[in-house]
Each structure stands twice: as structure tokens, then as C-alpha cells.
Amino acid sequence: MPAEPTELQRLVNRAFAGSSMVDRLEVVLLAESLDLPYRVRAIVTLLPPGRYSRQQLCDQLNSAITAHGYGTTLGTVE
């Protein structure tokens, strides 16, 4: 199993540890601070500007993962 799904899920979990909504910028900065693999950071930077609930963020990330053909290497997030 590749390390990226664990890292991407960890990013989502950390982003929502103390909040029910997050800004795109918060998620991008968190991905940078966690020093995530390039492919994970690239997917995160594709997020449109805005505030996200956990479900909205996961939907956006999963859509980007699928659209860019990273489904087999990055998996999906919940």
C-alpha cells in the first residue's frame, strides 16, 4: 500500500481536528508544513478557493484525484 493515502488522510484528519470548517489556504499551508509528497501537495493546490466542511473537502480532493488519474496511487479520503 502506498504511503500517500495515509498521508492525505492524515492531512484531512489534522485539518478538522479542532474545526468543522476549513479554508483552502489552511489546508494548503498544512500540507506544506507536514512536508507531504509532491503528488499530494499538487492535488491539494487544485482546491478551489473557499471554506469547506469535511465532506466538501473530501469530495473536492477525491474529484481531483480521480480527474488526474491518481486514484490507484493516492486512494481516496473520508
The computed structural class is mainly alpha
Ranges with pLDDT <50 over ≥5 residues?
A: 1-5
Strands side by side in the biggest sheet = 1-2
Give the oligomeric state: single chain
Q: With helices defined by DSSP (H or I, 4 residues minimum), what is the helix count?
A: 5
Listing every helix as H and every strand as E from the N terminus to the C terminus, the arrangement reads HEHHEHH
Overall mean pLDDT stands at 87
Report, as a whole number of angstroms, the end-to-end distance: 17 Å
- What percentage of amino acids are in beta strands? 5-15%
Overall geometry comes to globular
Number of domains: 1
What would you say this structure looks like, in words?
The protein is mainly alpha-helical and 78 residues long. The protein has one domain. Helix content is 63%, strand content 5%. The chain contains 5 helices and 2 strands; from the N terminus they run αβααβαα. Helix 1 crosses helix 2 and helix 2 runs antiparallel to helix 3. It starts with a helix and ends with a helix.
